[in-house]
Amino acid sequence: MRLTDILPHEPLTAREQQIVQRIAAGQSYKAIAEQLAIAPDTVRSHVRAVYQKLQINSKSALIAYALKQPHE
User: Fold this and answer.
1) Which of 12, 43, 70, 71 is in the most buried spot, having the most CB atoms within 10 Å?
2) Structure confidence by residue, pLDDT tens digits, 17-48
């Protein structure tokens, strides 16, 4: 596997990172939306953008990506 295969071509925004962290923690789209004061459809939109940026297509791949990221 090449480094370019695992790194996003475009960096995730701060909001996308927040959503990825919350999904990895097991939160639902509705719970994430309530915490971030956005609509559940907005959460879905961010998730679609993350999938596209990371070139993935599943929640399990998203969680695997999140677990590999350094924690602050």
Assistant:
1) 43
2) 999 999 999 999 999 999 999 999 999 999 99
* Residue 72, pLDDT above cutoff 80: no
Answer whether 62's CB lies under 8 Å from 51's CB: yes
Q: Which residues lie closer than 8 Å to 10 by C-beta, 6 or more apart?
A: 53
Alpha carbon distance 34, 11 (integer Å): 25
Q: Which residues of 3-19 are buried (b: 16+ CB within 10 A; e: fewer)?
A: eeeeeeeeebeeebbeb
